[in-house]
Design brief:
Layout (H helix, E strand, L loop, with lengths): L1 H40 L4 H28 L2 H4 L4 H31 L5 H36 L15 H10 L2 H35 L8 H32 L7 H23 L2 H10 L2
Helix pairs in contact: 1-2, 1-9, 2-4, 2-9, 4-5, 4-7, 4-8, 5-7, 7-8, 8-9
Length: 301
Amino acid sequence: QQSNLTSYGATAMAIITLEAFAGMWINAFLACVLCIAWVKKKSLNSNEKILLLLGCSRFCSLCVSWVYSFLSIIYPNYLYVHTILQLAVFFQTFFSHCNLWFSACLCVFYCIKIASFRNSCFIYLKVKIDRIVPWLFLGSGILALAIGILAYDIADKPHCNNRNSTAQGNFWKANIKMDKHFFPSFFLAGFGYAASFMAVIFSAVFLLFSLWRHKRKMQTNSMKNFNMEAHIKAMKSILSFLVMYSINFVCLVLEMVYVTKKGSHMTFLIVVFKYAFPGVHSLTLIFSNPKLEKTLLKILP
């Protein structure tokens, strides 16, 4: 059984490394291209600002997650030294929730910027959206910081520092005992996922309703309508968000169920989907942006 767990750990680490480094490259590319554009133009629009912060947060999230996984599988004795585990949990939680909330901000931005409603509140938001975006960044950062501090507090428990149980041979048993005490952190993560997931769902519903209304008005118009194209393009992006968020949310639930079952096939699949999300989603964003897509296709050869 110990041999099987070791084999699972090596396989999982190989998959994590491949996906994490691919995701880091994609998000580093996204951030670098936008930074270069920022230097050249001296400014960025709100959409580019969100993409820049999203790329940076995902790059940091993948770095921290990879280091945490590497230490937990290869050098568990170093990870479970006091404060190292707590700091790893804090940074992992903080960057993960920044990633979630910046993604939700992008969906809300698309919805407000493109959807057409006559409601006075919606019109006000459409006019002021560029000024609201920095406040969304601030709110997302504060919320992610608060959840990160709570996760740090949960990890900073006496039972998390059982040094007698962190020998290489007893690592998996110690990890199982510790995971049982980490259910509050899973519920914190669930709150972040659920709240951002609801923002994506509402954005998709409002944008779909706006598209349906606009299509009814344009049925008698045979000319090419750019507003319709913008609706459809944004709808595709948000639907891709929705699909990936759904997979991520299911992975979180399954992770809570299979948290004590190290070495199972389901745990392996959860790891694969969990580390694939930041890279695949950012790649979708790159191909939905003509400038980023053109730059990527230019440098790939």
